[in-house]
Amino acid sequence: MELEILLPFPSAETMTESWAFSEAQIDFRHDPEAGARCTISYAAVELRTHLLQMEPDAQICFVSQWHSGKTAIELHADSLTASGDAYALLPQKDGLLIRGAGRVGVLYGVYEFLKMQGWRWLEPGTAGEYAPEPGCGLLWPKNAVHDASSSTLGRGFSIEGALKESADLLIWMARNRMNAYGNRPNTRALMRKLGIVMRDGGHIFEAILAPDRPTPSGRTLWDAHPEWYGTPAHGPKSRQTALQTQFCVSQPELIPYLCEELLRHIMGPWHEADEIDVWGLDTWGSVCTCERCRALGNGTDQMLHMASHFRSFLDRARAAGRLDHDVKMALIAYEGTSTLAPPERPIPQNLLDAGDYLIYAPIVRCYAHGFDDPGCSYNRAYASALSGWNQIRPHLPVMVLEYYNVSKFEDLPLLFTHSMAHDFQVYRRTGAAGFVYMHVPLVNWGMRTLTQVLFAELAWDPDADIAKIKAEFLSRRYGAYAGRLRSVYDQIDMASQQITSWRAWKDRSLLSRLQSWNGGRPERPLQVDDHFQTPEAFDTAGEQMLSLLQAALLTLRETLSAVKHDTAAIRTDIVTAVNPAQQRSAQQSAQLRHALEEDLRLLVYGTDTMQLMLRMGQYYTALYAGCDDRAALLWRQIDTLEQRLEQYYMPLTFSTDCLDLISNDALTRTQLREVIARCRNFRIDQHWEDAVC
């Protein structure tokens, strides 16, 4: 096969590969044409690299001018100064035109063409690359293909803190048309090239308004300005509780101070960010109750009042040359900051004019029911609030922040296939213009790989066929064993539905109730939410959940054993393969084992964690009922699970102080270590023989 890849740049014949990896030398903000050349050249290199894996003997070259009689794939951007990601594949007499609205559209168009050939990128790195059979020839689109996403605000992940940087993850995002991520210092240039919009900030005021932060006078911020801290609804202010109530946005000296701090961050550590998350203190309900703040409206009105001052200040700073680039603010509708409810007053016009937008964050939503299910006590309030935000005219554009891996879940092997298709439809109908979720798993995606693939597809197109995507995913990832794994995935999906009742933020979840228990004989029955209804119903639901996970685990183990047996004849340690077919077979076998082994590690941890939580709840109920023999039996099971969980670790979790990464043993990640210790202390104090094993 002979093929030309036509680029709109002179000297493409000799310079394309150099341009493709020149991102570190380019100022994408001020030299967009050089940025376009870099991204489009990278698209060309990606195209050739993948096609050569399909056709190793092909002759593929880069050209700046088409040669008559040659088959060509032309890469064209309608604008070299915009990053627009819409694209079209247009059949031509002598090949194909891949046309993008901007440089990123060209890149996405290349990936769409490669997907037509059979390429899939299910997870970051080579382990997630699934290639078509070599030697099958190119598949050319018979008709024009046009595609654009309705998610104009972005599609990606929302993460705070200096978490792990991964070029593999960023490349996976681009190949799956995702374009929103946190500002990362060591990979910024790559993110620019791939068209990924960078955000920074978040819950920024905990550090800015830390009570013990020194001021130029030598006094602490609390000592210098106690009036800046919010008046709680009950009890007096104190240094110790200062950050448990939203700060007092009506203080005339506070806003200028915060404005200068915001500008200092934007021109300093956040300088490369395109957008800034401006979120309040994570206080879970407490807003300043002083007379002047109450006069501003509800918690959301107070936030918008502050944001409007920020916007005016940033606009003035830009005009005066103190700010060297335009920056958007991403505000938050989130119950932790008392901003979930829509405002009671009109949205400030300067926020609307600037293109600032709202991130809607239903952190404690239920996945057992559709987002718009009026019968669900969790989702009803979220759906009502989102509807209220979108009924405001004019209103801020809304990006939905989902929580398919919120840190409270601690990387459990959860699947939300049952709700994602429905919920994205609801979000789209209510006007959502972007989708992100917190937090992306950083290692060991396992079966959660399906969640990332579904999220990417639905964020681009909420009408995407979930059943088709899932079937293809299973076929690609597991090959001949896809049927077995379908049952595993279905069982995990069913077991995941009530996860919010098991463990979530706020005190309604079982985990939160257990964490507040002193470990002694309870004085009242186990409190469960209205989804479990009663301790007896919780017990039944828990055993059903555990049965599903254990059945999935058994099937997974049996499948891995079958794979090892079926591929025993394939030598994977041969340095030089006997033939290409054997080499490909060995690669596919290694890839399959990688997937199954990741699945297994994650599911073992998930089953252990959920079983421990169930047994702890049952143990509580047994103690309350005075069934000490049953309690003793359950305690022995808890002790066994504790020993098992403390012997292995699930790496890479979040620190609550600064959100840096740490490695935790599996027991710590259950969030039950301290509760178990309190229970053991109580049993020792009671001189029960089975207090220790």
Can you put this structure into words, describing what you see?
The protein is an alpha/beta fold and about 700 residues long. Strand 14, helix 12 and strand 15 (about 400) form a beta-alpha-beta unit. The longest helix has about 45 residues, at about 580-625. The protein starts with a strand and ends in an 8-residue tail after the last helix. Residues about 655-660 have low confidence and may be disordered.
Would you kindly provide a brief summary of this structure?
It is built from 23 helices and 18 strands. With 693 residues, the protein is an alpha/beta fold.
* CATH topology description of the largest domain: TIM Barrel
| Largest sheet strand order | 9-16-15-14-13-12-11-10
How many alpha or pi helices?
Answer: 23
Low-pLDDT sequence parts = 655-659
From the N-terminal CA to the C-terminal CA, the straight-line distance is: 70 Å
Number of strands: 18
What's the CATH C level of the largest domain? Alpha Beta
Whole-angstrom Rg:
28 Å
State the CATH architecture of the largest domain: Alpha-Beta Barrel
User: Largest sheet, described in full?
Assistant: 8 strands, parallel
Provide the descriptors you would attach to this structure in a database record.
3 domains; 8-stranded parallel β-sheet; alpha/beta; Chitobiase, domain 2; 6-stranded mixed β-sheet
